Amino acid sequence: MSQTPADYSGPQRVLSGMQPTGQLHLGNYLGALKNWVSLQDDGAWDCFYCVVDMHAITMPHDPALLPDSVRSAAAAYIASGVDPSKSAIFAQSAVRAHAELAWIFNCVARLGWLERMTQFKDKAGKDKERASVGLFTYPVLQAADILVYKATHVPVGEDQKQHLELCRDIAARFNRDYGKGEAIFPTTEPVIQGPGARIMSLRDGSAKMSKSDVSDNSRINLDDDADKIAKKIKKAKTDPEPLPATVEELDKRPEASNLVGIYAALTGTSKADVLGEFGGEGFGKFKPALADVAVQYLAPISDEYRRLIGDKAEIDRVLAAGAEQASEVAEPVVAEARKLVGFWG
User: Fold this and answer.
1) Does residue 235 carry a catalytic annotation?
2) 211 is an active site residue
3) Catalytic residue among 34, 86, 123, 228
């Protein structure tokens, strides 16, 4: 893992978050939440994990449902092992410093930088003229999410590397234009997620497991009970061939590769180890074994999630405490930025 950036002497901090849209699933857990817990438990980091509800409104949404969606995401964080006594868990919108710093950064970032962001093109689709300005500029808000805590490290997957580069460009430009070259904001480093981070759909091994997929059978939700998990794995798309003996032979078999990868991630082994045990076997034997592993692993998470979601008061206490903790760090950062750009007061 990268050390604290050489140009910055502040504390090591980690920032990450997820949108409260759709049910969090196995891919979110193995790709992000499990990694967040590892960073938290390492003890070397100040960890800030937000539910990014400001990002959620860049697309059509139901305002009446958003608060409970935030609670649901927070419950999933906690059930997955993110500990409110070790990490700040909060709603992005509850810390207004995010929005204020985002405006300053909107005036630092350049239009050409944003026009190169490939995710806007993917999300806006063919009719980008009808997309919200927020959808276009949300990578700037994402930079503010990170730098309002002067976060030195951010866990990222392949699809977010471009946005982290933009964050680094904004920090460098601000430092140059307003800090007279001093490292007001750090050059944030990526924390690259390890094996098992990219979990694919149970219905299509070439597409990521997604909250937005219309088929609930495409994913294992963190609140699925044992029966649902077993049924979804039983129905998961496969091919007619038995499992091969080597990882290389999985390359052209995306569904088989995905299921083997899930088994490896849940058992803390490698794909090669899984094939060493199941190579030559058919899916009639492998799928029940995978279902048993998944149920055993996920049952404590789903049980705790269901307990938490039934106690809104507890979740609200966690979110309020997390927002207070986050604001204590963020507000001085915004005050510093306000002074440097010359704002009144």
Assistant:
1) no
2) yes
3) 123
Cα gap 287→136, rounded to integer Å: 42
Write phi, then psi, for 156 (nearest 5 degrees): -135, 150
Residue 155 phi, psi dihedral angles, 5° rounding: -70, 130
Q: What angle do CA 49, 124, 237 make, to 5 degrees?
A: 75
| CB 71 within 8 Å of CB 58 | no
Residue matched to tokens 């990694």: 35
Q: What is the DSSP letter of 182?
A: S
In the set 34, 208, 228, 235, the catalytic residue is 208
Contact present, 170 and 109 (Cβ < 8 Å):
yes
Q: Could you tell me the two tokens for 313?
A: 């008061």
Q: How many CB atoms lie within 10 A of CB 322?
A: 24
**Mean per-residue pLDDT for 132-157?**
92
Q: Which residues contact 335 (CB under 8 A, 6 or more apart)?
A: none
The tokens 């045990």 sit on which residue? Answer: 277
Interval 213-258: pLDDT, tens: 999 999 999 999 999 999 999 999 999 999 999 999 998 999 999 9
Cα distance between residue 23 and residue 25, in whole Å: 6
Residue 2 predicted with pLDDT over 70: no
In this predicted structure, the answer to whether residue 7 has a pLDDT above a threshold of 80 is no
Task: Quickly count: other Cβ atoms within 10 Å of residue 166's Cβ.
Answer: 20
Distance between CA 88 and CA 20 in Å, rounded? 17
Q: Are strands 87-91 and 153-156 parallel, antiparallel or unpaired?
A: unpaired
**259-293 per-position pLDDT tens digit:** 999 999 999 999 999 999 999 999 999 999 999 99
Catalytic: which of 211, 228, 235, 237?
Answer: 211
- Residue 210 to residue 213: CA distance in whole angstroms: 6
The b/e string for 32-60 (b: 16+ C-beta within 10 A; e otherwise) is bbbbbbebbeeeebbbbbbbbbbbbbbbe
Q: Hey, which residues does 319 pair with through a beta bridge? A: none
Which amino acid appears at position 114 of this protein?
L
- Rounded Cα distance between 97 and 77, Å, is 23
Position 217, amino acid: N
